[in-house]
Every structure is written in structure tokens, then in C-alpha cells.
Amino acid sequence: MEDLHRGEKKGSSRNCTVRRSYKRAAFTLSQLEDEARRKSKMADGLTRPVSQSPAAKSTLSMGVITSYVIVVGVQGLYYTVSKVRIIRESNNSGISTYSLLLFVVLIVVVVVIIIVIVEVVVVVVVVVVVVVVVVVVVVVVVVVVVVVVNKSENSKTKSFKKPNDLQVYLYYWHDKKNFKNRLN
Length: 184
Description:
It is a single chain. By secondary structure, the chain is mainly alpha-helical. Helices cover 84% and strands 0% of the residues.
């Protein structure tokens, strides 16, 4: 009887079966716990506000950077166009500053809509790069066109500039006879 009990304790088939079933149960339990953790993480990701998810945070930071780049670009464009506009004021023609700014604002609105709709970081980076390139190309093209048109108009028609008082005085001082004749 003792041998039988000893055999059962040491390595009986019943003991091995119980041990195996414990191992299986522990493995199944750990699998179930892992599955439960994964589902809770997924549910947490679904119930978490969009602004707290990592993709939304990176999209938000990219949106802030994009907005900063766009604001600086618009300010630079406005400065450039205002300087060019001052050069072209003598001809009373040329591209309006407001129409250019309206075009840039339209580009900004389209980019913001794309950033809001698409929340993938890679796409946002590509959109930012494309927008910066488009704005730079638009600025360069506008400046080149305005400068070329300005030069061609200046070469065709040289508008009469009203002389100032010093120029008039010096001109008539050198030619006193003509000055007296013109006064009479």
C-alpha cells in the first residue's frame, strides 16, 4: 500500500495528468489574460479622445509647424509683393497685392482641410513639403513676372517725371537768357 502511495506521489500517470492539465490551464489562462489586455488596449484606443492618440498628437504638431511655415511664408510674400508694388506704382498697372494674398490664403485653406481630413503623419509631411514648394514657386514666378514686365514697360515708355525745385532753378540758372525770355 505504501509503495502504491509512493508511486502515485512520485510519478504515477494520474499525477502526470494533473500536472499537465495544470500547465495547460496556466498556459490558457495566460493566453486569456494577454487577449484581455490586448482587447482593453484596443477599446481604450477606440474610446480615448482623438486629440490624445499618438497619431493625432503628431498630426497636431505637424499642423502647428505647417501653420507657422505658412504664416511666415505669407508675411514674406506680402513684404515682397508690397516692395514690388512700390516699384510698379509709377506705371499704375500690375498684379494686385490683394489678389496674390487671396490666392495664398486659398492654398492655406486647402492645406488645412487636407490636414484635418488626413491624419497620417507621412501624408502630412508630404503635404507640408508640397505646400512649401508651391508657395516658394509662386513667389518666385510672381516676382520674376513682375520684374520682367516692369523692365519692359520702363524701356517702352519712359514717363515724364516732374522735376523738383532745385532742378528747375539749376536749369534756368545756366540759361539766364532763356529764363528771361520765358518769363516775358
